[in-house]
Amino acid sequence: MKFNATSIRQHEASKLLTKNFLETGKNILGDGLKLCQRAKAHHTQDPNTAFVVVEKKSIKEKINGKYVTQTYTLARMHDVAQCGNAHLCPHCASYKASDIRNWLELAFLPAAKTHNLHVGLLTLTAQHRRNDDWSAHIAKFYLSLEDFSISMYREFKKIGSFGRVRAMECPVGSNGLHLHIHDLITYAPGTDIEDFKKLALKKWKSALKKNGMSCNSHGVDLKAQGQFDPCYIAKEMAAYDTKDNSKSDLKNLFQLLDMSAKGDKQASADWIRAARAIQGRDRWNVGQLAQKLG
């Protein structure tokens, strides 16, 4: 049972960020999580009064290899600062995950159905190594994403795509930072998904090569409607262990904080290295999709 998991993770993240600042003299973007849930909100009406709410909350946990929903009684601070950092802050990540889940279920999926469109899950990855410069790797990855989007623009239009909902994940394993992108895309019924996947792989390899990167045949994965949970990317953001067909040693950033709190110095170093590399990148965005789908 993890009654204080969020608080422990926040404390550990703050400790690592402070230590890094004292050593380097530079703040990592996301430094605001040091105040998250620890200081009164800047617009508060009662700056000298604490506000604690006790409530029931259902939490999905992995027990003996299976996910079980447990109901806990939790105490939560209200009228306090929130940093909004979905990458580094376990508190704000859970709230943003709830937001995107609501958006998917109440807006995106019904709109796609209204337009007679199916929804697919496109995942893009690239080869990576532990001794790479993680910041440079992410920069080149995003340049490749831009080139891929340009080269695939007409191809996406052909299959009836209106746009995409994008989520970024960056767990860390023995091979370093495993950056990957999840795109929920729309497509017309009858689209040959396998042919589109082959074309996407060809274009993705070309975009990566242009920026000094590469991937193998697993660089592109495309799941058709009915083959995945449309709210998968919300679960990813909430840091549930939902990854399939991935290396068993991959740890998300919140799991690294758990390890760091137990004295794992490699996990501490990896967390700071990843935090420095991903600063300023969105965990998820919808581009112009909301406007296009009405």
Helical content, roughly? 40-55%
Low-confidence stretches: 240-247
Q: By helix and strand content, what is the structural category?
A: alpha+beta
Task: Compute the number of strand runs.
Answer: 9
> What is the percentage of strand-forming residues?
15-25%
For the biggest β-sheet, the strand order reads 8-3-7-4-9
What's the total helix number?
Answer: 8
Rg from C-alpha positions?
Answer: 20 Å
What is the 3D form?
globular
Give the rounded overall mean pLDDT.
86
The N- and C-terminal alpha carbons lie at a distance of 42 Å
Along the chain, the helix and strand elements come as: HEEHEHEEEEHEHHHEH
Produce the secondary structure layout.
Elements lengths: L4 H20 L27 E12 L2 E12 L12 H25 L3 E8 L8 H25 L5 E6 L2 E2 L2 E2 L2 E8 L5 H18 L9 E4 L8 H6 L15 H9 L3 H14 L5 E2 L3 H4 L2
Antiparallel strand pairs: 1-2, 3-7, 3-8, 4-7, 4-9, 5-6
Would you kindly provide a brief summary of this structure?
By secondary structure, this protein is an alpha+beta fold. Helix content is 41%, strand content 19%.
Mind explaining what this structure looks like?
The radius of gyration is 20 Å and the shape is globular. It has helices spanning 5-24, 90-114, 134-158, 193-210, 232-237, 253-261, 265-278, 289-292, and strands at 52-63, 66-77, 118-125, 164-169, 172-173, 176-177, 180-187, 220-223, 284-285. The protein has 8 helices and 9 strands. It has 294 residues and is α+β, with helices and mostly antiparallel strands. The N and C termini lie far apart (42 Å). It has a 5-stranded antiparallel sheet with strand order 8-3-7-4-9.
